[in-house]
Amino acid sequence: xxxxxxxxxxxxxxxxxxxxxxxxxxxxxxxxxxxxxxxxxxxxxxxxxxxxxxxxxxxxxxxxxxxxxxxxxxxxxxxxxxxxxxxxxxxxxxxxxxxxxxxxxxxxxxxxxxxxxxxxxxxxxxxxxxxxxxxxxxxxxxxxxxxxxxxxxxxxxxxxxxxxxxxxxxxxxxxxxxxxxxxxxxxxxxxxxxxxxxxxxxxxxxxxxxxxxxxxxxxxxxxxxxxxxxxxxxxxxxxxxxxxxxxxxxxxxxxxxxxxxxxxxxxxx
Amino acid sequence: xxxxxxxxxxxxxxxxxxxxxxxxxxxxxxxxxxxxxxxxxxxxxxxxxxxxxxxxxxxxxxxxxxxxxxxxxxxxxxxxxxxxxxxxxxxxxxxxxxxxxxxxxxxxxxxxxxxxxxxxxxxxxxxxxxxxxxxxxxxxxxxxxxxxxxxxxxxxxxxxxxxxxxxxxxxxxxxxxxxxxxxxxxxxxxxxxxxxxxxxxxxxxxxxxxxxxxxxxxxxxxxxxxxxxxxxxxxxxxxxxxxxxxxx
Lengths: 269, 248
Known about the structure:
The complex is a heterodimer.
Chain A: H1 2-7, H2 11-37, H3 40-60, H4 64-84, H5 90-111, H6 119-124, H7 132-151, H8 153-161, H9 163-168, H10 173-190, H11 192-195, H12 200-212, H13 218-243, H14 247-268
Helix pairs in contact in A: 2-7, 2-10, 2-12, 2-13, 3-4, 3-5, 3-10, 3-12, 4-5, 4-10, 7-10, 12-13, 12-14, 13-14
Chain B: E1 5-14, E2 17-27, E3 32-36, H1 43-51, E4 58-63, E5 74-77, H2 91-96, H3 108-121, H4 137-149, E6 155-159, H5 167-180, E7 185-189, H6 193-196, E8 202-207, E9 209-213, H7 220-227, H8 229-233, H9 240-247
Parallel strand pairs in B: 3-7, 3-8, 5-6, 6-7
Antiparallel strand pairs in B: 1-2, 1-4, 8-9
């Protein structure tokens, strides 16, 4: 116990703790939406496409998160455009953007002279190296996500459940869809530092699967998902510190263990 | 009195391939129109065009004054097979979704009260906190009927409300619809020709073209035509080749 209290006296750990809180709230809410709407694969495409932006930022020497945001939003809109306007099958459009982003990222990183030290932390995440400015960005994202979902909860729910009916009721369905896809892109990118590009899908789906065991109510799913994400992230953070293993992987592993135990308990009792 | 909706020479379809061509139809207050026709004949397409979900390629849909506006007083019950049964939503929330964006003069409490009343009326008040995926076919249709009615529509549009339901519920449903018809117009799509002809007031046969029967009596010969898609194309009184020619 003393070891844990002592940990909180370190600045790097305080920051990691805050990052875990922010990641849990934004990923919990956005992930619950993604899972409910069955657009996990789109989110995977956006996440991986953002790697192209990180590579570009390394190459041109600007903030990698900015590059990632650019590519994430671009790919989110690009997937919609490919599917709706160019009439390419949706899963194929997703795969095209997914791999295009990764390919561009690799090319840019290769072309960048010298060693790119942070690359691994973008791919696999490192919550212990989150900076103060990144925390501010995460804080603002949380503010926007929580506000948006509190104010428009019913409209978001009705559109997600039955888009066609929502249209007949006169709801601005397209506007909401575009706004939310941008929020998904931002959530993915700003949480990359926590678990990394390759593992971020887990924060958007595993806590939600755990929460879904206990509730079939959308609002409760949002809250419970954030709670499970928080428990998993914090527990993973401690495990990572005390066992000296990478934080991203430790967090995912903890999330999956929690889900597995709960699922098993549910079928036993 | 003006019809609520007047469809004139409507051509509509997907990706420039017309599913319906040169359709004319009038829906007046307290009409009860049964829409029948083979699968892929354009029944649902007709409903979607009326609901504004599909843009006409040509032709017009005129709405009367009371039917115009951003949110039209139309209640819609879609085909339940398109509903994601795993979606995390409760029965009561599904019904409440029928009340969004309309009846601004009503308070939140009044809308909830009305929703509770509808659930009671349909005999599904006991399942209001259940998830949508836990319902039987009949319960599901009742819940979606509640949703369609919450906005107090002038026109009720139902797309195959008789799928996934047992015979007893089907009978109840048609009794219910006849009662509702005393106050509003109904457009009902069904694949069950035999049953709907007993409760509707008129019939629209849809198979690329629309042929309107002003009564609910269809002769044996017409029914035979209905079962044969090739013949139903020549169903109209005006030869369609001429119409097509005229149009392009």
